[in-house]
Amino acid sequence: MRPTALLSLLRSWKSIFKKRTGEMKKKRRKYRQGKVSAEQTAVQPLAPPLIGNPSTFSTKPWWSSDWWNLAADGSSNDIVSDFGTCGDLAIAASSVRGNSHRLEGTRCEDSFCITTGETLAGATFLVAVVGDGLGSAKYSAYGSKKVTYQFAQRLAEGLGQIKDLNQSAVNTVVSAIISPINNNVKSWSVGEHLAPLVPPEDVPANELESTLTFVVIPAQGEKGLRPIYFGQIGDSPLFLLSGGQWHPIFYSVDTEPDTEDSAILDSRTEGVQGAESLLIGTRVLSDSDVLLISTDGVGNFISSGKENLAAGTHFAKEWRQPVSPSKFINDLHFNSKTADDDRTAVVCWFNRSQFDSLE
User: Fold this and answer.
1) Is residue 298 within 8 Å of 345, Cβ to Cβ?
2) Span 316-345, mean pLDDT?
3) What is the residue extent of each domain of the chain?
4) CB-hemisphere CA count at 13 Å for 4?
5) 59-358 maps to CATH 3.60.40.10
6) Nearby residues of 85 by Cβ (< 8 Å), 6 or more positions away
7) How far apart are CA 90 and CA 179, in angstroms?
8) pTM of the prediction?
9) For 203, 246, 250, 344, which has the most beta carbons within 10 A of its beta carbon?
10) pLDDT class for 36, splitting at 50, 70, 90?
C-alpha cells in the first residue's frame, strides 16, 4: 500500500473513532444528567401542614417513637375514611385519631356515617352524620360509632317513605327515631364488635355519650341552588365556605336564626343520651358553596366568632375544590401544638361537574 493511501486510511479510522467516542461521551453525559434529574424530581413524603407552633409528635416518625400506641381492646380506628359521589355531590370524609389517644393507646372517639336514599317521588338524597364521643364517658367510642351509624341508616330509611323532601318531613322522621336509637345504643351482646366487654346493665347511659350533627342534602340542585336540612346536639359544628371564608351554621335558643328553622330541643344539650329530640334548621346553598361537618377537633381551629383562624384559612384554600384522598387525610393531620384531640371532617362539594377541568 502506498504511503499516501495508508495515511488516508489512518485519517479515516481516526475520524470514525473520534466520532464514536464523542457519541459515547454524549450518552454518558445524558445518563448522568438523567440520573441527577431523577434524584432531584423524586417524590418526597407529603408533610402535614404546619399551623402555628409544631407538636412534639411531629419530631419523630410514628414507627420510631413510643407515642403512637395501639388500643389494647382493638380497633384503634387511627384513620377511617370514605370518598365518593351521589348525584351531583362529591363527598370526602375522614376521622383521624388524636395524638392524646395515640399516646394513651385508646380508641378514636370520633365517628361519621354517610348514607344515601331515595324518596317515594324518586328524588335521591344524601345523609351525613358526625359524632364526637365525650371524653368523660368511658365507652363513648362505642356510643359514638353506634349512634351515628344507626341515625344515618334510620333517617335515610324514614325519608325514603315520604314523597317530598322538606323541613316538615325531616322533623317528623327525626322526632320518631331519636328515642329508639338511644335505647338501641344502650343494648348489646358481650363480644359484639366495638361493644364494652361488660353487660349493658352495668353501664350507665352517660358512659356512652356522644354529640351528634347531621345534614340531609338533595343529590341534585335546581338552577344552582338547593336546600339542606341539618340538626345538632352538642358542639360538633357545621361550616359553610362562601366567598373564601368559613361561616359557622348554628342555632341557639339565645339567638334568632336568619333562616326558617324548627327548635325542638335546646341545642345546649351535651349529648344524644340526654336528648329526646334535637334542634333542626334549614338553609339554601349555592353550587359555589362548600359544606363542612366536623367535630371540635377540627372546628375549634377553623374560626373564632366571625374570624377565620390559621387552619381555617388553610382549609378554605385547599378545600375550595375536591382533593385527592391522600391530600385530604394529610390535611387532617395538620401539625399544631395544641391540636391533640380526634379530628373528623366531612366535606361536600356541589355540582361536581364544575370541577372536571381539574382532572
Assistant:
1) yes
2) 95
3) 1-31, 59-358
4) 0
5) yes
6) 91, 352
7) 31
8) 0.83
9) 344
10) very low
